[in-house]
Amino acid sequence: RMVAAKLQDLPAPIRWFSIPNLFRYEKPQRGRLREHWQLNVDMFGILDIWADVEIISIASDVMKKFGASEKDFEIRINSRTLLDDLFKKIDIDEDKRQFTYRLLDKKEKMPADDFRQAMEALIGEQKSNDLLEALYFGEGLLTSMHQSEAAKNLNKIIETLRSLGISNLVFTPTLTRGFDYYTGMVFEVFDTNKENPRAMFGGGRYDNLVGAFSNQNLPGLGFGMGDVTIRDFLETHKLLPNIDSTTDIYFCVAPQTDMKKIYELAEKFREKRI
C-alpha cells in the first residue's frame, strides 16, 4: 500500500527496509510470540533474477553477521511458477491447485502416509503419484522441466548464488510458503541444529501485490526476519552476544525536582568521565 501510494515519486529499483514492532493474535509458542520486532527487506521494480540473487544474498549476509557459519543454517529455495508449470504438466485441475499448494506447505508437519492420503483425496491417486514422484526427484526436476522458463530462471538463480559462495543453498521442490500472493521464487532459512530444527524466516517474489492497490503493477520481492526465531537460533548455537551497558550512573528524577540542578550535577560526573 505504501509503495503503491508513492509509485510516481519513487524511481525504480526501490530498495526498502524497516524494523517495526509487530503483533499477532494467536497462542504463543516457541518462536512465535504475540509481540515481536521484525526486519523487513524488500525490493521493487526489477524482474531480473539479479534482484532474487540480491535478496537471498542479504539474508545470508545477515545470518553471517550474527556469527553463523554456513553449516549452522541452510537456505531452501523453490519457485511457485515452476510448481504451476508442473501442475499443468500433470493436469491438476485449476480449481484444486491452490489447495495443492496449501497441502504441500503442510507436508513437513504431517506423517508421510497422512500426507499421501490427503493428496490422493484431493487430486486422485495417479496424479498424486506423478506429482510426488516429480517432487522427490530433487534437482533432477529442474532438468526434467527444462522447457519451463521458470525452471531455467530458478536454475540460474541457484547457480549464480553458489558461484558467489553461498554453498548452503538447497533446492526444495516441496517448499511453497503459505501465502497466496507469492508468484515466483520462494525461500526459507532453516536452522540445521537438531535442538532447533525449524524455519526461521523466509520470503519470495510477489509481482502482483502492488498492482492490487494501484492501477499500475510493479514487481516486488523480499523477506521478513523476526527477532524471536533469530534469538532462539543464537541461543542454540551459543552466538547470543553479551551486551553490557556503558552507563555508570542513572539519575531517577522525582516530581517537582529542579531540573537545572540535575543537569549541573550530571555534567560534573561527565567531566570526570563517569
* H/E topology pattern: HEEEHEHHHHHHEEEEHH
What general form does the structure show? elongated
- Our estimate of the beta-strand percent is 15-25%
Count of distinct strands: 8
What is Rg?
24 Å
* Residue share in helix: 40-55%
Number of helices: 10
Question: Low-confidence parts, pLDDT < 50 over ≥5 residues?
Answer: none
Mean pLDDT: 92
* Structural class determined from secondary elements: alpha+beta
List the helices and strands and how they pair.
Elements: H1 2-5, E1 14-18, E2 21-23, E3 35-44, H2 49-65, E4 73-79, H3 80-90, H4 94-105, H5 112-123, H6 125-135, H7 140-144, H8 149-163, E5 169-171, E6 185-191, E7 199-205, E8 220-226, H9 227-236, H10 259-271
Structure, briefly:
This protein is α+β, with helices and mostly antiparallel strands.
Give your account of this protein's structure.
The protein is α+β, with helices and mostly antiparallel strands. 40% of the residues lie in helices and 18% in strands. The chain contains ten helices and eight strands. It has helices at 2-5, 49-65, 80-90, 94-105, 112-123, 125-135, 140-144, 149-163, 227-236, 259-271, and strands spanning 14-18, 21-23, 35-44, 73-79, 169-171, 185-191, 199-205, 220-226. Strands 1, 2, 3, 4, 5, 6, 7 and 8 form an eight-stranded mixed β-sheet that branches. Strand 6 and strand 7 form a beta hairpin. It is elongated. The N and C termini lie far apart (48 Å).
